[in-house]
Amino acid sequence: MSDRDVVGQLSDLELIVAAARQAGEIALGYFRQSPEVWWKNEGRSPVSAADFAANEKLAAILRPARPDYGWLSEETDDDAERLSHETLFVVDPIDGTRGFLSGLELWCVSVAVVTDGRPTAGVLYAPALKELFVATADGPALKNGEPIAVSARPDHDTCRLATAEDMLNGFDGDFRKTIERVKHVPSLALRLAMVADGRLEGTIVKRNSHDWDLAAADLILERAGGALVDLSGHPLTYNRADVSHGELCGSPVARLPEFLRQLAHRRDS
User: Which family is this sequence assigned to (predicted)?
Assistant: First the structure.
């Protein structure tokens, strides 16, 4: 990658960090204040006034700053025009809206820059937790300015795993005995960040997550020594016509082969 590309990434990172911070502070103003709520996806998913306000702030900052970039946000009607862009912003104004509305602190603003299908800069800002995760494709993953790395626990040690109980069906008995399931984390992006900073050894993601849930966290996990892959072990591609994904696994690179072996029955079913 050329020096110019690296400078471009840093510039993008500075931009998205500033935007995420401002959007996060707006969302924080609605936190535990009973914002107005609507339901989407045939009544399955809540969206609040806080989501819309944070989305408006992100769009107001990012889109004029990079008019040649495409745009994909959970709270903006999708437009196939984004597919014509080599680079675009991928945005979730509040990842973990259900937790946000329940008064839980585990939510964040997620912003990524994606080029040719892969993230090149990413930020997760969790203002209620005072946590800021950032990464670029050629730099370290940082949490509040300090480098982070995935867990180095040996395979035979306890494995802290964030997943639904039914996702463990079919695991070998001996392997399952090593698993310590953690309390539900409503923000998928933060769950992946918890793998990146070593609080978890892995997470298994149910199908139908979306680009905006994943792109920034994917890059942060990768730069911390981990990987987010499908059950065949392939990295994800973003900015496709279909922005939803199948079942996924995120873990330290060293642990992926064992996780994927345990999940083979789901891949082949």
Answer: Belongs to the inositol monophosphatase superfamily.
